[in-house]
Amino acid sequence: MRIGQLADLAGVTPRTVRYYESLGLLGPSERQGSGFRYYTQVALTRLQKINDLKALGFSLEEIAHMLPLYFEELSNRCHLQALIEILQQRLQETDEKLVSLSHLREDLQASLDRLQRVLEESASESSFNMNEVNTQEISGLIVD
Amino acid sequence: MRIGQLADLAGVTPRTVRYYESLGLLGPSERQGSGFRYYTQVALTRLQKINDLKALGFSLEEIAHMLPLYFEELSNRCHLQALIEILQQRLQETDEKLVSLSHLREDLQASLDRLQRVLEESASESSFNMNEVNTQEISGLIVD
DNA sequence: TTCAACTCTAACGTTAACGTCAAGTAATTA
DNA sequence: TAATTACTTGACGTTAACGTTAGAGTTGAA
After folding, report:
1. Contact yes or no for B119 and A80 at CB 8 A
2. Nucleotides of chain C within 7 Å of a protein C-beta?
3. Does residue B143 contact residue A95 with C-beta atoms inside 8 Å?
């Protein structure tokens, strides 16, 4: 397939594909004489993985370091050790991020509970309902 | 305290503090005649919370929506309901992010295990050690 | 009082991750 | 074959989150 179709399937624009290529994230595709880029399913898989990692908040530079772990061959031992170190670092950062996010989640839940109580209090205080407070909405807030 | 000290304590620059103020993240501080900004401990706490949220990958715009949950008073019921909705959304997004991050962590761990095995194989294959592979480093990689 | 250090506003510069436009070429459809 | 798409490179534009510089006023210690 060509760049337009690849971009559509991956939910990005051709511009983005070319940009990723310029950063070395997508390897220089085949140019069959015409100058057009032609791609296979592999490129799509790679693009989707890039999107996944981006959604997790990684920069393209970081992603460039992580992609070999998913796609590239493990050539020599030297390269392999470098990858292991990168991976070790990523794993640690991920664990830290998980901890922080868990804390944030607790904060959010606590704030939610607090607001809920405040809302209930204000509901019982005022004898007539000014703003049509729907308590059904509130009971659905707790996800856990 | 003035802007320089506040910035130092929070690990940012005065420029950043002014920028946050321009976005409404730090409220217009007191200007005692001279035109200088004077802050209290409250501003520092607020700045630190901003830093925490930034570390979690939230944009300043998102943070602007979250800060009231930590600091502002819950004035009227209308405002309160708006906050509850924002919080509900954040909580859901956080849960999704936690799931994705957990998956990433599994991927990283799996890749690490794989690399580890490859390294061991290459070590047992070659009778003489070309690159001084230190197997101690590898056993320390698994965090769990 | 004086002078270095701090602060003010205003404005231009920077990086990441693209968007958008231009001018030309290739492919496809009528 | 002619007209519409799709693709090419190149270059300038954009947003977020500040950095940096300039020119002028303020503080506080010696």
Report:
1. yes
2. 6-9, 16-21, 25-27
3. yes
Which of B42, B57, B46 shows the shortest CA–CA distance to B16?
A: B46
Q: Where are the domains of chain B?
A: 1-72, 73-144
CA–CA separation, A81 vs A98, rounded Å? Answer: 26
CATH of domain A1-58: 1.10.1660.10
Query: Which of chain D's bases lie under 7 Å from a protein CB?
Result: 6-9, 16-20, 25-27
- Cβ neighbours of residue A52 under 8 Å, at least 6 residues apart? B100
Query: Which residues in chain A are contacts of B111 at CB distance < 8 A?
Result: 69-70, 87
| B56 contacts A97? CB cut-off 8 A | yes
Instruction: State which fold the B1-72 domain adopts.
Output: Multidrug-efflux Transporter Regulator; Chain: A; Domain 2 (1.10.1660)
Tokens 């501080």 sit at which residue? Answer: B29
Spatial distance from the CA of A30 to the C1' of D1 (Å): 31
Query: Tens digit of pLDDT per residue, chain B (144 long)?
Result: 999 999 999 999 999 999 999 999 998 777 878 899 999 999 999 999 999 888 877 889 989 988 887 777 666 666 778 778 877 888 888 898 899 889 889 988 988 888 888 888 877 775 444 443 333 332 222 222
Rounded, the Å distance between the CA of A100 and C1' of C22 is 47
